[in-house]
Amino acid sequence: KRVVIFISGGGSNMEALIRASRAEDYPAEIIAVYSDKAEAGGIAKAEAAGIATRIFVRKDYASKEAHEEAILASLAHDRPDIICLAGYMRLLSGRFIASYEGRILNIHPSLLPLFPGLHTHQRALDAGVKLAGCTVHLVTEGMDEGPILAQAAVPVLKGDTAETLAARVLTAEHKIYPLVLRQFASGKAEPQPADAMIISASL
Ligand code: GRF
Alpha-carbon distance 149 to 152, whole Å? Predict the structure, then answer.
């Protein structure tokens, strides 16, 4: 399966997907990395991995529609079977999503439906939850609300800050996203129950 990854920042999830895709039995090939930020750290990482990068800066376009038009035109050439959003900080329009209905995945750093949106780790700490984690879901028009494919949980530890919790969740993200893409690309939409991992950090 042909996969395109969308990033806006450092691209550590992108890196994890690229690394996983190198296994010869991996059912997905990363065709290109798209970014809406010219300075995204992930661009250099993608280039270093020999993956094509395509940059579409929003302010270069007259409107959101024009911006998406340009991206869709480029995607028509790349012909992805699957689009993986990985730290992509822009909402896709219903029209865009309809073009790739049921084939856009996203990773969100919380156990949805808890804490959709931003600053998820601080909100989890403020709420006093004992478990945090990440969710891979299908992208629908609403933000962070599509069907959940898999989740990974990590404990919230005494003295955690948003930074220490984010780092612990990120390691779980890097494990679960490649696994979900493997399952999704091989046609098993939902990973087997065993794959909905509970990551136990060293308590
Ligand atoms: C991660 O927490 C991810 O869950 C969120 O963006 C953060 C950075 O991701 N979507 P990355 O390092 O750019 O992959």
Answer: 11
